[in-house]
Amino acid sequence: MCQLLGMNCNTPTDIQFSFEGFAKRGGLTDEHADGWGIAFFEGSAARCFIDHRPASDSPVAELIRNYPIRSYNVISHIRKATVGQVKLQNCHPFIRELWGQAWVFAHNGDLKNFHPKLQGDFLPIGETDSELAFCLLLQTLKNEFGYRTPANRPSVAEIDKVLRPVCEQIAGFGTFNMLLSNGQAMYTHCSTKLEYIVRAHPFKNAHLVDCDLQVDFGAVTTHNDRVAVIATTALTNDEVWTPFEPHTFLVFEDGCPVLKNGQRAAL
Amino acid sequence: MCQLLGMNCNTPTDIQFSFEGFAKRGGLTDEHADGWGIAFFEGSAARCFIDHRPASDSPVAELIRNYPIRSYNVISHIRKATVGQVKLQNCHPFIRELWGQAWVFAHNGDLKNFHPKLQGDFLPIGETDSELAFCLLLQTLKNEFGYRTPANRPSVAEIDKVLRPVCEQIAGFGTFNMLLSNGQAMYTHCSTKLEYIVRAHPFKNAHLVDCDLQVDFGAVTTHNDRVAVIATTALTNDEVWTPFEPHTFLVFEDGCPVLKNGQRAAL
């Protein structure tokens, strides 16, 4: 099993505080030492940093800890290899282009006997069941909506409607906790384990679970900022995180949940 | 105009020496200060580091200078913005997946009135003519060869045959010096300016043009190593680089040129 971290905000925000604790789980406070990765959106483009070395010991992770990259949407993953070797091609997040947008995906869980029929528009580069699932999600979107330009891309609600049944179908093959973003919204599915928190004014202090680090969010935010953080397990021990109910499909936009299993989400 | 750097080898090699000089051109010894990027292949997967800050001053470039990533194929680019703003989405190299392989592309030159008809399998995320050209190259490959799996991908010679006329067609719109790789071979087109060198046993010393740094390749290589380095202009001042003739399409594999304008290349 692996660990997921996602962030969705209404203003470009850096993820250094959360990543500091999260990266510790890659070999120090937890056993997920088989590579890791993080992707930052800037508009429709994303830059993805991956490394086969444990996050707790990776020069690339060291860069991320020290270089504040501000983004509306971030997806990170640390890997405990179960299917596929420790190789770069098996490190999440995975990235593909559809409709002139980068799409970024990371998955926690194992899928058994999962051999979806792919039509060739999106094929896995590595050997993981996760990348297969990502290709199936994108192929389904492409089949449903066809060729779209930036001027007529489907809406968040339209995308939600197509993704939900595919995610349920994939979850039938095992555990499918996942984060997916195109830079506009963060689509998430929980089959077993995922928690989130929405931070907004009035901001408070927060203290990490995985190391002795504290931040006063009030000092680094404005009244209008709103940030949703999603993780496999809570990253802080003095805030109230909301666990996902199993088999929930939750969409975040502008730093808060907007659709829960297809219905307008209440904060 | 921008600057290109490529490396194609028969053994995984790090690019630190060449990158040290090349990165200086991003704001110090030359004016290409509008972002930069570098992609390293490992098998069919590639990891791509891009930054909108000048290469001479980028924390990500600092990482690359200090973290030896060994690769068979590397493509790097430093940008002087002419078309498209200084934004992450306009930084080369660009990356897409086709036939379960990452494809990486970088371009030097401007294309005027270039509006190719794209069918939607590969669409630009940013605003550059370069990314449009990349999408056209991949769409042409996909149209020609259809759905291919790792077991029946086209050969280097077959790919060469399809890419050459498209590159000539694109070069009709302006300057089209480019590097393209799928991790197996490095496809290059020169319309005005590109030079290369093949380093093999017996290896010698080399001294950079852009800073006072020297390396003894003999001390860090074996007798069997072979490395081709391709750049907009020579990176060293005590080796003999071979300038490309204008309108040359040259393919490198295992560290040496193998096809020149469709004919077997002589070393």
UniProtKB/TrEMBL annotation, chains A, B:
Coiled-coil ranges per UniProt: none
Which InterPro entries does its entry note?
A: EgtC-like, GATase_2_dom, Ntn_hydrolases_N
> Where in the numbering of this chain does the Glutamine amidotransferase type-2 domain appear?
2-267
One Pfam family assigned to this protein is: GATase_4
Keywords from the named record? Glutamine amidotransferase
Decide whether keyword Hydrolase is in the record: no
- Gene3D superfamilies per record: Glutamine Phosphoribosylpyrophosphate, subunit 1, domain 1
Determine if Calcium is one of this entry's keywords.
no
Write the protein's name: Class II glutamine amidotransferase
Organism of this sequence: Limnobacter parvus
